[in-house]
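ok so heres the complex, two chains, lmk if somethin looks off
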Amino acid sequence: MTTERKLQDVLAKRRIEEVAFRYCRAIDRCDEELLLTTFHEDAQVDMGVYVGPAREFAHFVMPYMRDNLSVAIHRLTNVLIEVDGDRAKVESYMPGCAIGATPNGLTDFPDVMRYLDRFERRGGEWRISFRRLVMDWNAGFPSTMSEGDVFAQMVRGRRDKQDPSYGYLTR
Amino acid sequence: MRDSPTSREIEEFLAKQELHELTARYCRGIDRADEAILLSVWHTDATVDYGFMKGSAKEFSQMMTAMNEQIVRTIHCVSNELFEVDGKFATGESYLFSISTRRIDGKEMDTLVGGRYLDRFELRDGEWRLLHRTFIMDWNMNQPSTGEWSGDGRFGVLTNHGRRDKSDPVYSLLGKH
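and the predicted structre for the whole thing:
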């Protein structure tokens, strides 16, 4: 492979990784509009709990996340990408955590899932054309989240467009 | 505006990308218990020091991917990868956060580990591979599993489960590694 070709591949991989990060950003900020920018119009998903068009998934998952979790953090590591022209196959690890209400009170839900994706570049733009969610590990503990002491003074993240990140990123 | 990158800078940049991918491929090999993937990250004469296992990387790979009824799952997440490239040699440090579940006397226990890989890499025949890996343990935490794997709850409804063998869904995505 020529150096030129290798550089093109790395550029594609960085673009794809940004879209994968933006997906997390959209989910964590409950931003359906932003979430839709990560999918092609005809994208499909297999989330286990839901299999079908990504557009419908986005419409269903956002209220679910907003109403059932008070905090959600989706991180990505181990993003492995294979680029083949305008197509790519991507595996990423998602160690995340969330807080949700249960009959036993607020509960911390740490978890690790994986995204298995097919990306396509259309009109110069990489987006997800198929995404499958794989559950690898989860746990639940009584939440010990503190709102006091030093934490009371810190700027809090929000799950809407009032989140301070909207003053920094345009999308 | 500064000059275009030199060919040396571009080589170094591309080398770091390869080392980054190698680091993730190691995790895929371990977590899917896939000996072929794991072997593909080492040179044939590579060595390891994991404390409990010091010696050939090949033997380590066989040991880590052998059938083990006790091990329910392993998950290796790497971050903070720092590489220093010097011609055909490179060194690196990466942070590991891992979760493994073991079945002991019918009960599942989760072990969370924070550690680091200290690596030596070599470029041979145009391919970067590991020549030596030392694992450093910085933190661990052990507790009974509280996972939810079925039912109507938050996690129970997510029915695509990761597997420690070739039935894991990643194989149908990639077709190869």
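quick notes: The CA atoms of residues 85 and 169 of chain A lie 29 Å apart. thats all i got rn
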